[in-house]
Write a structure and sequence with these properties.
The protein is mainly α. It contains five helices and no strands. It has a single domain, classed as DsbB-like (Bromodomain-like, Up-down Bundle). GO terms for molecular function: protein-disulfide reductase activity.
Length: about 170
């Protein structure tokens, strides 16, 4: 608990959110590069949430350096929580598509995997992996499902950080 209190102090939570987002993107790219698990359009959409969060948070931290007020830091932490909340929604939708609860969006029909590292494959027509086929499940959740769990935890931590900063426990 002491670690969490220290992490939620001042600017540390926004920086931690950037680091965790970068690690999530690195893990996704590692699965793609080394595991040959190529992303479907919904997988790419989930990555866009992390890219947006990194850009928004870096901009917010730069602006906070110009005017370091507690109110601004509260707003930044709330925005970080809302962006992670968008990640939860996108991951939930993708999981629902994998479980056949929701219909896949246009362009997610699939048709096979592509190997971007093999130059000889450029002669063949490129196909997009299907959004309905999860490559594996761990404890009943696919990669999209676990992404939703991680995003939900990060959203909750963001709102906790915003609340602690608002109450003045973390002076900016």
């Amino acid at each position: 608990m002491l670690f969490l209190k220290g992490l939620l102090k001042d600017w540390k939570w926004p920086v931690a959110a950037i680091v965790v987002s970068a690690l999530m993107l690195a893990a996704a790219h590692a699965f793609e590069t080394f595991g040959h698990l190529y992303p479907c359009p919904l997988c790419l959409r989930q990555r866009e949430v992390y890219w947006a969060l990194i850009a928004m948070t870096l901009t917010g931290l730069a602006l906070w350096k110009v005017r370091p007020t507690r109110r601004f830091l509260v707003a930044l932490n709330v925005l970080i929580g809302l962006v992670f909340g968008v990640g939860v929604v996108v991951a939930f939708y993708h999981s629902g598509v994998e479980w056949k609860i929701f219909p896949p969006p246009a362009g997610c029909a699939g048709g096979g995997e592509i190997d971007l590292m093999n130059m000889e494959s450029l002669d063949r027509p490129m196909t997009v992996p299907s959004c309905t086929d999860a490559p594996f499940y761990i404890l009943g959740l696919s990669m999209a499902g676990w992404n939703g769990v991680v995003s939900a935890i990060l959203a909750a931590a963001s709102f906790i950080a915003a609340g602690a900063t608002f109450r003045g426990r973390n002076e900016a």
